[in-house]
Amino acid sequence: MLLLPVSHAVAASNTPGVLQASWFWQSAYEQANPPVAPPTTPPTEPSGVPDGDLAVAYTGAQDSAGNKTPAKMTAIAFDTAGLTAGTSIQSFTFALTLDTQPTATNFAQQDAKIVACLPTRGWPATLPKGGDYTDEPTYDCGTAVEPKVNGNVYTFSIPTIAQTWVDDQNLGVVVVPDPKNTTAPFQLVFSGPKTIKASVAYTPGTPLPTEPPPPPPTDNGGGVTNPQPATGGSVPGPVTLPGGTTSAPPASAPVLASPTPTVSATPVAAIRPASSAPSAGFWLAAAILGVFMLLVSLVLGDPASPVAVGGRSKLDNVLRERGSDAFTVRRD
């Protein structure tokens, strides 16, 4: 039972289709006389490649490091939509078939040394015609793969290259003359993308486990949110009911908050706004204070000091008269 998920994962396979295919061409003249800028006119020599076909060719050119450079190269990208992140490629193969029609120029097939390599940049689609060599992708043949040849079928096994499509970006694969083992000129013309057969076996990526989100809090109707029961707490014991019956409460019963007590509404008498006028008590206290202050001034004042009655105000005269009468009564 434990081996079933693994076996199912390893057995996952499909036949990916061709997403995009191109071939790029540098004529023999251009190889001997590389232009500074891309040529403005197409090469005058015939390509020997029917429209829609793909080609790989070598005419004897090499770079400054002594590696053989292609006159024609093919680039293919496969549909990897089903290979999600984390997928482990177990095998990936694709097969190219030679076009044996008279319009396809194949020569020195027995001497042809070709390999599959990893492109290091993107490239445009050019079919049905071939593209200019200035648009061809650069590539890395550090993990070059030689094909198995069975008659006119060239089969490449490239799981390492295919793994980069999952781990990084899908730049496809290029088929070029072997940069180290090619010695004689050759040309191979393969039929178009519709005849390319590919297959892949892989272990699907395992998604990381995710914890389920906590349940949303509930409202008991009174605006109080019930807290979630804490894990690891003690379980309440059985409850003895009247009559000797024992009942055990549920172990994970949530504790509900007490409902909000209902307060009966009692009619309240209407409250009238208080008057802004001083009360009678205020005026009585003010009068007593005034009389007291007057008495104090008469007792402490100098009776010998003459005061000009004409300089007093009416209020002062009235207060003095009332104070004098009160003082006379008190003295008597």
Describe this entry's structure for a reader.
The chain is α+β, with helices and mostly antiparallel strands. It has two domains: 4-203, no CATH class; 284-300 and 310-331, no CATH class. 18% of the residues lie in helices and 24% in strands. It has five helices and 17 strands. The strands form five sheets. It has a six-stranded mixed β-sheet with strand order 7-2-4-11-6-8, covered by helices on one side. β14 (218-219) and β15 (225-226) form a beta hairpin. α4 (280-300) packs across α5. The longest helix is centred in the last third of the chain and has 21 residues, at 280-300. The chain is rod-shaped, with a radius of gyration of 53 Å. Residues 1-10 and 304-309 have low confidence and may be disordered.
Which key features would you list for this structure?
alpha+beta; six-stranded mixed beta sheet; single chain; 332 residues; 2 domains; five-stranded antiparallel beta sheet
